[in-house]
Specification:
By secondary structure, the chain is an alpha/beta fold. Helix 3 runs parallel beside helix 19. It is 43% helix and 16% strand. The structure holds 1,6-di-O-phosphono-beta-D-fructofuranose. The site of 1,6-di-O-phosphono-beta-D-fructofuranose has 15 residues, from loops.
């Protein structure tokens, strides 16, 4: 860590995150159990796969002291992509554990799930934690994308926990990591390992949410960072009046980030992948839609604009999705031969010759850079690394070509100059907003309360988050309750259902009701930077998505 601490970081270190009232006096709150639960889908299959934990009741904490606690040691793991507030989850967990018994110890497994398997760890003392309170990033202990799913990994983890006297693990991760937390909890219960497992919902993508998990942490801060930048770009566009800005926004699969940023900034266009999939739109149709907006604004003398493109778009366009699926199989089958090709043209040629006719045609219609980006390495979960595919450039190029054709036909007479941007990594490690600082600290503290109450296979849950923190409700949701069966890599697997943008949900419906106006008018909103100090109405905000969803 640098010896120089920014003035903001110094001032921010003193911020005391808010907690749900049930935990105000410590994590030793009373756990009130609800009725037994089922699963999000395929109930009988989930019951059969998780006989130990299936049916566990939901838990809500009440502000009355539970049982006194003997000291116990806990291990914490950060899993997957960075999200603002991760350090506060750990700080909340630490403070919660100390409130249960001051002799509890917290160990951080390093570089993600790998640390548990390879026994790489550090003790997280008050001094270590103190240096990271209210900071962004995951650099306290690092993160990684290793999947925890094999018995050998579970056994190595058990051995390493036993050596440290660790009786409980807290896994901070997205839907995949929490799915794996559930498998681990089941295995440790079945084998009587005496290790509890609790998860915390993390991901800027916002796609780990449901009726009981209102938001994944980091979404609020990341969207505020991107919206600040989009607002600044909108103002620049409206000042210079000469560029169309095509902005790709992170979010591997769901378009929650693009939708939230659209709600915060009112761009001229925002593509929502889930709508593209529902309408079975082709790339040509998306290009026509964007070119139509450019032409309509040009007709009013406005040769500038802002268009938001979700990162995951390519996988939602049915024809490209089918192409990617075939490419995945082909690249896996021909890995050795393909790996030997050094030259880009040879790679493209190799694929064109082996793809089926219709896929080869779609592949050939894409710009060369995209053809190459589609064959880059997949991540350890088998996902195409969409952050490396320059969809914003592809669409800008294709819209330009379309406008040239329209011009030749006399249907467009404007000027079209583009700037392209990708906002992703800029937002993942930002200092958490007050919402994320409070929410994360509360999630961590609630995780300690769940461990204190002897729970395993649960996800920490903090609800009623559109209200002020003095009305937040702390509790735990059995992870099996969020699971269903999905086809992954040719097999049916139990997974937490990913929350995509719902087209009949309030956030999308509001966006859809406004977008035609935003397209032809210049109605930009300039949210400005996240405010950490000042009046509550600028510091203690929650996302537009949450407000509309919970209204
Ligand atoms: P998580 O789902 O692990 O939170 O990560 C989300 C994300 O930030 C996506 O938005 C993005 O596509 C991806 O991670 C980028 O991954 P990487 O950090 O490996 O480049």
């Amino acid at each position: 860590m640098s010896s120089v601490i920014s003035p903001l970081q110094k001032a921010r270190a003193a911020y005391a995150p808010k907690l749900p009232p049930a935990l105000a006096k410590g994590a030793n709150a009373r756990a009130v159990e609800g009725k037994p639960t089922a699963a999000a889908g395929d109930v009988e299959k989930i019951r059969a796969l998780f006989p130990e934990n299936f049916g566990s009741p939901m838990v809500t904490f009440e502000a009355a002291p539970g049982k006194a606690q003997a000291a116990f040691n806990v291990g914490v793991i950060l899993s997957g992509g960075q999200a603002p507030g991760g350090h506060n989850v750990i700080a909340g967990l630490f403070d919660g554990l100390k409130s249960l018994n001051k002799d509890c110890k917290l160990y951080g497994f390093l570089k993600g799930p790998d640390g548990l398997v390879k026994n790489e760890f550090m003790e997280l003392t008050a001094d270590v934690i103190g240096a990271y309170r209210n900071t962004g990033g995951f650099d306290m202990i690092g993160s990684g994308r290793t999947k925890l799913e094999k018995v050998e990994q579970f056994e190595a983890g058990r051995k390493n926990c036993e050596a440290l006297g660790v009786k409980a693990l807290v896994i901070i991760g997205g839907d995949d990591s929490n799915t794996n937390a559930c498998l681990l909890a089941e295995y440790y219960k079945k084998t009587k390992a005496g290790i509890q497992v609790v998860g915390c919902p993390k991901t800027i993508d916002g796609d780990l949410k449901n009726e009981y998990i209102e938001a994944s942490f980091g979404f609020d801060t990341a969207c505020r960072v991107y919206s600040e930048l989009i607002g600044n770009i909108g103002r620049d566009a409206n000042s210079a009046k000469k560029y169309w800005h095509f902005i790709k926004l992170m979010g591997r699969s769901a378009s929650h980030i693009a939708l939230e940023c659209a709600l915060q900034t009112h761009p001229n266009a925002a593509i929502i992948s889930e709508e593209v999939a529902a309408k079975k739109s082709t790339i040509g149709e998306i290009v026509d839609y964007l070119a139509g907006i450019v032409a309509a604004r040009a007709a009013k003398g406005m040769n500038f604009g802002v268009a938001l493109i979700p990162e995951g778009l390519v996988e939602f366009i049915p024809e490209v999705k089918a192409l990617i699926a075939e490419l995945n199989d082909l690249l896996a089958k021909e890995e050795a031969a393909f790996g030997k090709l050094a030259d880009a043209d040879a790679k493209i040629d190799f694929l064109k010759k082996r793809l089926s006719a219709d896929k080869a045609q779609v592949y050939a219609s894409l710009p060369r850079t995209i053809q190459l980006q589609l064959c880059l390495d997949r991540d350890p979960h088998g996902n195409v690394q969409v952050s490396q595919i320059e969809t914003e450039k592809m669409l800008a190029e294709m819209v330009k070509a379309k406008l040239a054709r329209m011009k030749a036909e006399g249907k467009y007479s404007g000027k079209f100059s583009t700037q392209t941007h990708f906002f992703g990594y800029e937002g993942r490690c930002a200092a958490p907003s007050n919402f994320d600082a409070d929410y994360c600290y509360s999630l961590g503290y609630t995780a300690a309360a769940l461990l204190g109450a002897g729970k395993t296979g649960y996800m920490s849950s903090v609800r009623n988050t559109v209200k002020s923190a003095d009305q937040w409700i702390a509790g735990g949701i059995p992870i099996t309750m969020m699971m269903n069966m999905e086809r992954r890599h040719g097999e049916d697997k139990p997974v937490i259902r990913k929350a995509l943008v719902e087209l009949d949900g309030a956030p999308f419906r509001y966006f859809a009701s406004q977008r035609e106006k935003w397209a032809v008018e210049t109605d930009y909103v300039y949210p400005g930077p996240i405010q950490y100090f000042g009046p509550s109405e600028v510091c203690d905000l929650c996302t537009e998505t949450l407000k509309l969803e919970q209204r």
